[in-house]
Amino acid sequence: MSTIEKALDKLGQAAVAEPVPAIPPAEPADKLVNAQATLSESKTASQFIDIDLDSLSKRNFVAKATERKLIYEEYRVIKRKLINNAFGPLSSSLKNPNLILVSSSRPGEGKTFTSVNLALSIALEQDKTVLLVDADVLRPNVSRTLEISVPRGLTDYLSSDSVDVTDIMYSTNVERLKLIAAGKPHHLSTELLASDKMAALVNEFASRYPDRIVIFDAPPLLGVNETSVLAAMCGQAVIVLEENKTKLNELEKAISLLPPDLATGFVINKAHYSRDKGYGYGYGYYAE
Questions:
Q1: What pLDDT digit, counting tens, does each position of 63-100 carry?
Q2: I want to staple 56 with a disulfide (CB 3.0 to 4.6 A). Which of 37, 61, 214, 268 is the partner?
Q3: Which domains does the chain have, with CATH numbers?
Q4: Is the pTM of the predicted complex or chain greater than 0.70?
Q5: Burial environment of residue 28 by CB neighbours within 10 A (0 to 12, 13 to 18, 19 or more)
Q6: Cβ–Cβ contacts within 10 Å for residue 61, how many?
């Protein structure tokens, strides 16, 4: 063992007694087109997040394709299994195999670290795109980890009819990586995640782009209901364990909350291999 993207008014002539002021010349068509393009580019720019890859790299994240680190190799192994499950032979037996839930039994075991690293590693693939969704609406940590700030997120979309998916989905300076933040805290978070609107959103995630993997950084499984609700919509799960901290009985209880037909893998975080290799990240895969 080493888890988304409004004419011109009609000019009329009226019979009036007073002189009609001269109508200024119409703007050339090319200027109108350029103005529309500028507005479009402005909206696009407002939906762009610049991630500090240097900072991520210093904090042991898979942030730069040119670097050769042990953690890069570890996450290559992990992502390969997930990609194979999402698009390989097993995919036909899974519901929404390209939707991956990342969770843990308790807080602090490294699930967000794993979610972000998986997303960054998959984004290095030349024929795959990845959408990272902070679904931990109780204690969101993706934006904090990436050191970014966005005005709206998942709960804002689910709780309002005036917010569109394109309002919460952000492109990044990592070419094949998009982000959706958790949004503002909401007292009906479980109900929002279990709503028909969320189900429709998940179905769109699963089918709109055939090359996309969606990673949900979910709350820990024990003590909350949101994660099991979200897990029922996904095809794969990655459960993060911290070596020498995660308790076996809590892990067993956490796994019992997952759908039995979910392809479930385990990442061992902070696994100490040897003095020369330092800390690494192991992976085990289990599926029925």
A1: 887 777 888 899 999 999 999 999 999 899 999 999 99
A2: 61
A3: 52-286 (3.40.50.300)
A4: yes
A5: exposed
A6: 23
